Amino acid sequence: xxxxxxxxxxxxxxxxxxxxxxxxxxxxxxxxxxxxxxxxxxxxxxxxxxxxxxxxxxxxxxxxxxxxxxxxxxxxxxxxxxxxxxxxxxxxxxxxxxxxxxxxxxxxxxxxxxxxxxxxxxxxxxxxxxxxxxxxxxxxxxxxxxxxxxxxxxxxxxxxxxxxxxxxxxxxxxxxxxxxxxxxxxxxxxxxxxxxxxxxxxxxxxxxxxxxxxxxxxxxxxxxxxxxxxxxxxxxxxxxxxxxxxxxxxxxxxxxxxxxxxxxxxxxxxxxxxxxxxxxxxxxxxxxxxxxxxxxxxxxxxxxxxx
Length: 307
Prior knowledge:
Elements: H1 2-10, H2 20-32, E1 36-41, E2 44-49, H3 54-71, H4 74-92, E3 99-101, E4 103-104, E5 118-119, E6 124-125, E7 128-129, E8 138-141, E9 147-153, H5 164-176, E10 179-184, H6 189-197, E11 201-204, E12 208-210, H7 215-222, E13 232-234, H8 240-249, H9 254-263, H10 265-272, H11 278-289
Parallel strand pairs: 9-10, 10-11, 12-13
Antiparallel strand pairs: 1-2, 3-8, 4-5, 6-7, 8-9
Helix pairs in contact: 3-7, 4-8, 5-10, 10-11
């Protein structure tokens, strides 16, 4: 079912594509109507047509579960997380201006079948510091002395505003007063439009990177008759889009991002700390953006799980 959602969301011209949270509402309605049936295996939900025979369900589930378990094995997911970070690091090495912190020190010493060693960026800038043991993936200092905090999210899930990854990124960047930069596989319109209005810089990779050593798992996960994750790419070399974003597009965005970030900082802080619900945050951003009063808000009651 997730594969079908992805195929629908990726089909058609950009302005006409449907984000998965809309499809989720339709899927839930089909379950309520008993046209779809849900079962749980390996900690996630699987969906099938209610009129499908039990034998077919068990055969298909066994095939897909084997691939899913290999794909989601903790030892692989850690190396998968590193793959996008390393690609970003390699792109940052080509940054023509500005300095950055965070590096991988043993990329040429062994293959990606084991984890690489990383020197994390500092957890403080002057008197400002990150809470607890939190760390950003990279810290970049632009030629104008503006700091940027980069977070790389190489995950299957779309990065909706209420996800923990978004709250954590905002919390870390607000603590250091640096401009948030989010690099992720898929970032839906509701996230990009809202957060860009507040000064967050966003880049979609449209691919999930897996280690080259996991080519067999990648091939099976991409198979349209198994998981259908067609956008998987192996290796940790940055593609042209990521290099262009880091080396050409990123720094010119900084002045406008800083202006917006300062203007909406109070709302970002309330949202990141979860003292302000998503629907109120979104409505206040919209009203402030259009110069409207934020008093006596009458915002729609959304279910946060939709995002």
